[in-house]
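Render this sequence as a predicted structure.
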Amino acid sequence: MERLRALSPWTLLAASLAAALYLKLAWVGEDAYIVFRSVEQLFAGHGPVWNPHERVQVFTSPLWFGLLALGRCCGGDLFGIALGLGALAWAGTLLALRRLAGSPGRFLLLVLGLAGANAVLDYTASGLESGLLYLLLALTVLAERRSRLPGPRGGAALTGLALVVGLVLVTRLDHVFLVGPPFAAALWRQRPLAGRRLAGLLALAFGPLAAWSVFATIWYGFPLPNTAYAKLDTGISAFVLVRQGVRYVLHTAGWDALVVAGLGGFVWWARRERGEWPWLVAVLLQLAYVVRVGGDFMQGRFLAGIFLVAAAVAIAARGADLVRRRALWSGLILYVGLFPWTPVNKPVHGGSSLIRLGIADERAVYADALSVWRWAAARRAQRPFPDLVWREEGEALRGGSGGPVVAPNIGVLGWAAGPDPLIIDPLALSDPFLARLPCDPAWRIGHFPRPVPPAYLASLAAGAPVVLDDPDRQALARDIALITRGDDLFAAERWRAILRRNP
């Protein structure tokens, strides 16, 4: 209590604003239920899989999956577990940002900037790994700043930086571009490093990813999650994806202007700051990656971590100057307070569910059914949750002996169906065979449908090998079945198939 009284009113105001926005906007996305079902499969004895008959990694973040599984050991409500973990991650993020800011005024300015960023706050509590990623990115910036100190303190911070980078890579591997350059620069600054010291730092940074990749290759047959193959191996030209990626950034500029303006301001400022060039390179590389892959269907999500890092670095480096700029304070307060769709002003439920350029406000689409407030009300009234037709359809499949079910929205339906039914995703997020087929021309970013061969469904229903007319697809189906369903993980024939299907 004494420590609480000792906090500055500005720190308390900033923390209260951040906590209030977390509670206001807390929800769990439909995609999070894909991970929830995989956790339930683990507890059903099938391992970390989607369908019980084959080993497929449907979760992008091994670390987030592991935390959910640990939480599941303490209780069965993964919705509440995910939001609880998200709250802890958000609290940790705020603590790291407070350390970075260095003063209550700078911390308030930083939180005020985040309060105007839908891209950040819409996914802080979403059941996805975003909140965990924010925490690790904030810790990365903090450790990198401290690694600049001379002597043992800088050396200890470099060790911490290596450890956090390692955790980032098993949370979102595609953020290697955002943490790699600062880590490399920190190693360079502390040269010369003894061979054992350098090896230890590299082991901390890349050991977790290497260990997971070895496990994934042995268990699943592939080092990357199936979602990566489903979304990146589509046959769509690079030009078309880059064009969509540019549209993604422009779409964000219209809906979340502060994020794009802030990133532009950071690039303009950092180009003249020699000490911040690693962060400038990191931000530009991550932005280039986002554009190259076509962005995402969740508006702003792929820019959230970049914006948080840019804001944190700017406050840490130039906070004393920024906090004295009245125009900056006035502009932020007016934007956050008056712009109708900032996190402060937009409604708890509702919003535009319009899909433009393949991009949607995912929270507006699902929060009316999947917000923390709907969850709490359902628990009080002892009603089934969530109130979605997919839950009802999934529950109807429980205990049934029917064949495989094709469903384009597999999250809530698959979770509600329980661990036994075979749920086939035509978007191929959970199906390694379909993920390696060309996608349908009528695609939307993040949604790349594949035609499901009737013979493939018939083979699943009969539990027999698939027979296809196309010899290439027949060979693919045979290899995938051998890799993902073979009982002997170390059979020579299985490993020959793994080598064939991992270019």
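Summary. The CA atoms of residues 223 and 423 lie 23 Å apart. The beta strands are 405-406, 423-424.
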